[in-house]
Amino acid sequence: MSPEEQTFLDQLRRVLAEKVAPLAAETDETAQFVHRQLAILADLGLMGANLPAPYGPAISAAALYAAVEAVAGACGSTASALTAHYLATDSLHLGADPALQARFLPDAAAGTKLGAFALTERNAGSDPADMRTTATKQVDHYRLKGAKCFISNGGVADFIIVYAVTDPNAGHRGISAFVVEKGTQGLTYGRVERTMGLRGGHVWELEFDCLIPEANRLGAEGTGFKTAMKVLDNGRIEVAAMATGIADTALSLAKDWCKTRIIGGEALATRQGIRWQLADMATDLAAARALAAQAVALRETGGRFTLQASMAKLFASEMVHRVTDAALQLHGGYGFTRDFPLERLARDCRIFRIYEGSSEIQRMIIAGHIL
Length: 371
Description:
By secondary structure, this protein is of the alpha+beta class. It has helices spanning about 5-20, 25-30, 35-45, 60-75, 75-95, 100-110, 225-260, 270-300, 305-330, 340-350, 360-370, and strands spanning about 115-120, 135-140, 140-150, 160-165, 175-180, 185-190, 205-215, 215-220, 260-265, 265.
């Protein structure tokens, strides 16, 4: 990373420590959406950090990874909402024509408009080809009809990237993507899901019976699935970053606890069994970062990195469970209380093995590449 990027990250970490991390417990307790936190990130220019110039600050893939990791280490809910926004803007960057990009990306990068990414349906999670949402051409509009679920930012987003079937006989090649703007007639919001963790990064049910202008279609008909897969490659690196960010916080808490917790007249950190646990946690975290670094390096070159992103996402999302659980265990009964952040971290990271492609789907992708 450049000296300028290092300076930016130093500033980001200071602001996160002063303004975002102190809100994390309250956000989890009240389950209020992270509007305040996203406004802080917008002031730092982070809402468009995934985008190239002229829309974003054009930081490196390594700096973006470090930034997402830092946000997650401060507040998982904020990182979840931020990266959901990235899925939406990445969709526009990778799939839309310049005119459509120019309509939405400046405000999205500035943080004055929030995006959402609507791919998942109740019967089409792991296999998007099973989706039932359709978009039927009607002169210069499309009739968009169907429903989506578990859509992060969905109910508060200013625009939603919706994936729908335009040719039911073409399988993956019959999926297209559209921008649905807030206030569109026929867009209705279902309930906010009551989630185990990331309680300030809300997910919604959405229903559509809308007329969408043809100009709101991303690219040519039938290119939506290809766009979504490229977007998810990016997103899986960002899930890895969230996982390593939360694991880093958990490890730091565990180290501090073991240095100061006195049992039998000695600090926990003087005991070999405890030291070995901390060593395993640190090694697990370093291995996850190393796998992610491979994907980040390929992302920087502009080449495909599907295999590396899947490996990074799989390992990191499994790793963070091990590290947070071990950190909670080292805190004993205190770790199980809500006075300490460990139980929140353990709940927040559980979704990483499920969303943006479950661990099982990542194993299928990896096996497909190596075979």
